[in-house]
Amino acid sequence: MAVLLNPSIRKSIAIPLPDMLYKNHMIVLGFGVCPVTIDTKIIQITQLRWGWGNELKSEIGNFWEVKVYKKSSGKFTSLSGNLPSISIHIIGRQLVVGRYIYWCAVDCATVDSVLKTRNLIVSFDITNENFDVIDLPDKIAILPLSLFSVSMLRESLVLLEYNKDGYEIYKEEQLGCTVWMVEQGVERSFTKLFSINAPGDLMTVLGFTKRGGPIMGVQDYIFESTEELVVYEPNSELSNHLISGSAFIVNSYIETLVLLGSSDCSSY
């Protein structure tokens, strides 16, 4: 069951999800609103569980199984063309930029009985319902999964590259993050925008303000439970502390009238 909530008008609806019939598989959900038709869509992706590699025979074949729900029709339909390989695994939460949903992912392949992995980005066009795989520069494609992520900066997709894990205390270099703009085009290019020096021992870039300032979760001591939410100014390298807590998640928010004609707490 998936629940869609529009806090602007305080309405929610429940959507029953298709059953997963395969062992050793998992479900990944995506959500977005088509900017052309304003139709609400849920994307249900069935993929191999992380860690199985592609040496395990898949019941669904060599590609993902994907179903798309449209609120206008009230049902799920299957996609059959241009689907990513079953060897690609989505890692982490989705990011919506314009008409696209993005996920960090890793491609696993077994070569001479050795599991090889390569980082990449998977995108889904909410309007045309097409997938695309974005290859990353070699230095980022081979990073540990904890050292790269995606975010949105001024309505554009950016790639975040960390130089080390905060727990790697044996490394003397200061923890930092480089922000790369992902340029659109037939061949994607990556332009370095700026680098962030961590004001503490641990740092996670959670998003960006409208003016482009990084919003970060920071801890001053590695084993301290309290985290600070701060806004960082790259030019002055000064941080504006907002609130303290244990963990933070930051998402973009746009007011909309989606679900206006629906009954609150209704099931479809």
Verbal overview:
The chain is mainly β and 268 residues long. The protein has two domains: 1-135, no CATH class; 148-250, no CATH class. 1% of the residues lie in helices and 52% in strands. The chain has one helix at 138-141, and strands spanning 2-6, 11-15, 25-33, 40-48, 65-70, 75-79, 88-97, 100-111, 114-125, 130-135, 148-153, 156-162, 176-183, 189-197, 202-208, 214-219, 227-233, 238-245, 266-267. The protein has a four-stranded antiparallel β-sheet, with no helix packed on it. Strands 7-8-9-10 form a four-stranded antiparallel β-sheet, with no helix packed on it. The protein has a four-stranded antiparallel β-sheet with strand order 11-12-13-14, with no helix packed on it. β8 and β9 form a beta hairpin. The protein is globular, with a radius of gyration of 20 Å.
